[in-house]
Amino acid sequence: MSQQILQHLSSIPPLDTEASALAAQRLDNLTKPPGSLGRLEELFIRLAGITGHPLPSFNKRTVIVMAADHGVCEEGISAFPSEVTRQMVLNFLSGGAAVNVLARQADADVRCVDIGIAGDSMEHPHLIGRNIRQGTANMLKGPAMLREEAEQAIQIGHDVVRDAVAEGYGLFITGEMGIGNTTASSAMMSALTGITPLESVGRGTGLNDERVRHKAVVVQRSIELNHPDATDPIDVLAKVGGLEIAGLVGVILGAAMHRCPVIIDGFISSAAALVAQRLAPQVLDYMIASHVSKEQGHALLLKEIGLDPMLDLHMRLGEGTGGVLALHLIDAASHLASEMATFESAGISGEHTL
Ligand SMILES: Cc1cc2ncn([C@H]3O[C@H](COP(=O)(O)O)[C@@H](O)[C@H]3O)c2cc1C
Ligand SMILES: O=C(O)c1cccnc1
Question: Domain 3-55+336-353, what fold?
Answer without folding.
Answer: 1.10.1610
